[in-house]
């Protein structure tokens, strides 16, 4: 009886991989993609997850409050140095079309009584970002949608312009629905779903030879050549990856595109913000043919 009990008490061999196998790049990417199937991560998620209590809101996984007492450090950075915030979860809608047609229809969802409008000269040139409150078409001062910020692409000599409107994810569906109704954009453009790039056997051999030069050979996984490459999840927390993200109007020619999570957005606060930008961003040298 004691021998039979000992047999049953034997622990089953753990099926989990060792830490070294779990920390391999391909395994980490697969695990990260599995975790963000329901809630999308920002590109700074790993940094925040180690230092913040994370919350799931508006289809994203965001840092809510720090795990340590860092309020003094944040205040010191805002007053004397520079503090950076990741606002990439804000939604971006892009409008493309003739400038006159854009301004004509956008005037229906805002009012000059509240302050700036899309027609403000300093904002229309593309030099400054503007902010205003949107309303349902021809319903001011009732039925307010919410606050948004916008920026025009500078003129390039053409009558077609590009306008980017940023809003909180809680407002996106209402604002998008109103813009589609105002510009009569009911026909979606073709949905583009990226497919994995296929290479020939000869190209793969050339790539392997280039990668193997000057590097140590790594051990292959148990699957070996049968290992499936990890696919990157597309879409964002407010849109399904298989839904349409661009709409066009046959009457006005206006195109509305959803650029959420395609354009990152950061906010720098503090007296040294300009110095950080000048040290980080380098001007490209223009070459004229």
TrEMBL record:
BP terms from Gene Ontology: tRNA 5'-leader removal
Record protein name field: Ribonucleases P/MRP protein subunit POP1
Gene name tied to this protein: POP1
Residue stretches making up the Pop1 N-terminal domain: 4-97
InterPro entries: Pop1, Pop1_N
Organism, as annotated: Eudyptes sclateri
GO cellular component, one term: nucleolar ribonuclease P complex
């Amino acid at each position: 009886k004691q021998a039979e009990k000992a047999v049953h008490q034997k622990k089953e061999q753990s099926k989990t991989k060792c830490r070294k196998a779990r920390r391999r790049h391909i395994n980490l990417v697969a695990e990260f993609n599995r975790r963000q199937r329901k809630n999308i991560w920002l590109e700074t998620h790993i940094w925040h997850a180690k230092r913040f209590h994370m919350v799931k809101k508006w289809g994203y996984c965001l840092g809510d409050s720090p795990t340590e007492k860092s309020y003094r450090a944040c205040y010191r950075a805002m007053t004397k140095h520079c503090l950076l915030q990741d606002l990439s979860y804000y939604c971006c809608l892009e409008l493309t079309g003739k400038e006159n047609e854009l301004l004509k229809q956008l005037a229906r969802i805002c009012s000059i009584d509240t302050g700036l409008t899309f027609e403000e000269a300093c904002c229309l040139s593309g030099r400054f970002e503007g902010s205003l409150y949107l309303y349902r078409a021809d319903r001011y001062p009732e039925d307010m949608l919410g606050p948004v910020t916008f920026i025009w692409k500078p003129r390039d000599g053409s009558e077609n312009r590009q306008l980017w409107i940023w809003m909180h994810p809680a407002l996106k569906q209402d604002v998008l629905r109103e813009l589609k109704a105002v510009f009569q954009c009911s026909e979606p453009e073709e949905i583009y779903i990226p497919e994995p790039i296929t290479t020939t056997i000869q190209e793969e051999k050339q790539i392997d030879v280039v990668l193997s030069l000057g590097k140590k050979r790594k051990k292959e996984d148990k699957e070996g050549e049968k290992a499936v490459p990890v696919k990157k999840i597309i879409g964002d927390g407010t849109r399904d990856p298989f839904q349409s993200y661009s709409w066009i109007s046959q009457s006005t020619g206006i195109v509305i595109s959803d650029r959420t999570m395609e354009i990152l957005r950061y906010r720098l606060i503090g007296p040294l913000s300009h110095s950080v930008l000048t040290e980080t961003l380098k001007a490209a040298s223009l070459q004229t043919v």
